[in-house]
Amino acid sequence: MSRTLAQPFLRRLFKPTPSLTLKRFKSTMEGSSKIKPAARVSGQKQDVWSIINEAAAASPKQPIVNMGQGFFGYNPPDFILNAAKDALDRVECNQYSPTKGRPRLKKAIADAYSPFWGRRIDPETEVTITTGANEGMLSAFMAFIEPGDEVIIFEPFFDQYISNIEMPGGKIVYVPMHPPESGATKTSSAADWTIDFAELEKAITPRTKMIVLNTPHNPVGKVYSRDELQKIGDLCVKNEIIILSDEVYDRLYYVPFTRMATLSPEIEKLTITVGSAGKNFYATGWRVGWLMGPANLIKYVSAAHTRICYSSVSPLQEACAVGFEQAESEGFWDKTITDMKSKMDRFNEIWAELDLPYSEPEGGYFVLVNMKKVKVPADYPFPEHVASRPRDFKLAWFLIQEVGVAAIPPTEFYTDANAHLAEDYVRFAVCKDDGVLEEAKRRLRGLKKYMQ
Ligand SMILES: Cc1ncc(COP(=O)(O)O)c(C=O)c1O
Prior knowledge:
The protein is α/β, with parallel strands linked by helices. The chain contains 17 helices and 14 strands.
């Protein structure tokens, strides 16, 4: 049927009666109909990203220097960008990839990681490609969590874990990382954020199915020591708990870095390692991630991934394959560490100048700064939704309004019960051009007048 003929016919067919139209309109407007949103997306507090964006839009200091979200202020290296452009010219790269990922990328990842594992990783059964690490983790929870199963996560946590665990009906059990006691007065190492292992052991119940670990850690910058990982791993082996080891910052470490799965064959059997090409290659918008682990775990993750999004972006998988194939010979892995460490050191000079203590990161690209010494005027006009949140939200709002630098309040990554642990800290992302870092430092000097 042609379009012109079809339209009057369809209009007649679907023409609602006036009373039905009115009823539908009223119930939709009142929010009382079946059309109301599911609990998993409704009733959430205003998220940190929209609060920060709103603060940035309202600030007199335009344009804002954005040190908040962890996206890169610069492009992937040319050898990877060119591979993406070339892939777009190839017919097969513009079509569906196999659900578990393109063979070339799986092989490139297996080749790149086998030396760390000390054995050959099987690209067909032990690697699966996902739409960013985030969707990979959602697939892992979808694959193993039944309603009521418990998942342990450490606070502060990457915020997406929460909804990813809750969607399949998982119950989250929180264990806090304890900040250094002298964090408000002295610069310390991110290593000084510690887990109380008695607390962790107490959190384990017969229903604990998974634990999520993040190393190098966002936002703390901690790289878990071999000893700490061994203790966590031993508890998981003893209690048969799957370890989801989120290692998306695995190429950015400034102290020795241990990969959970490499500790022992018993631990490896329970460990799914999470990776992100977005983080590895400065391309967070490409949405290419992967999971590696024992074949009997990975096959269920792939099954969930197939149902969630079928397969992931083809041409960018191809470009990431080239990234892994050539990174070593291009000297990219060494350069990524040197460059990020130099950004970290360059930016953190400002804290010595201001005499504000921070947590010296051991990995990743975030730094937590303790701003207890910054005196926010008691009558400062915060909007209600900021005034009702912990002090770090007020600090972040204040920084945007007064000096024009955006940063993230880390209590967003805590439960209400433990938010007090981080309410004097603010998180900055240093994965920005050096010029941006210098401009941020220049503006942050404006905090001096609030510290007398
Ligand atoms: C700890 C952590 N895990 C996972 C992710 C998500 O990675 P991707 O962008 O590959 O989904 C992020 C992104 O910020 C992160 O910080």
